[in-house]
Design goal:
By secondary structure, the chain is an alpha+beta fold. Helix content is about 45%, strand content about 20%.
Length: about 150
């Protein structure tokens, strides 16, 4: 069994890296690859002792857990520092819409059949007014009257 452990750890390393590449930045399986590095080097001696093989699994578990606990936050911040979360509503920014309803000083537009309250600092909006969506704040669209 000991002579095959090199291939086991090499397979764990490669499979973890392949899954990480497929999942692109999710940091799910990279920790198993990191954990397999030290047992991979340990397995070069090809000792058939059951204790030596068990120690490889213990080292694998400890290195995997330690890398997950200590490096995950740092790696995640480094990988995702410039990522801003986009929503489907972001595709409607700078698009024109008509005010379809007013109610108690609130005006509404319809986007894909869903009514959104709109907010405009400068103008009082009336039904039929053309507006351009500038951004979304919560469940309200910030608009500018045309």
């Amino acid at each position: 069994m000991g002579q095959y452990m090199l291939y086991v750890w090499l397979a764990v390393l490669c499979i973890g890296l392949v899954i990480e590449v497929i999942e692109a930045g999710t940091l799910v399986s990279i920790w198993f690859s990191v954990g397999a590095v030290i047992p991979l080097f340990m397995s070069i001696w090809r000792t058939n002792s059951a204790i030596y093989i068990a120690s490889q699994f213990v080292v694998f578990g400890l290195v995997t857990i330690c890398s997950l606990v200590f490096i995950r936050k740092i790696a995640r911040n480094a990988l995702l520092k410039n990522v801003t979360e986009k929503t489907n509503l972001d595709s409607y920014i700078d698009k024109k819409f008509k005010i379809v309803e007013t109610n108690n000083d609130l005006a509404y537009i319809k986007i894909s059949g869903v009514s959104y309250a709109v907010y405009d600092e400068d103008d009082k909006l009336e039904v039929g007014d053309q507006v351009v969506v500038k951004k979304f704040m919560g469940n309200k669209a910030v608009v500018e009257k045309l």
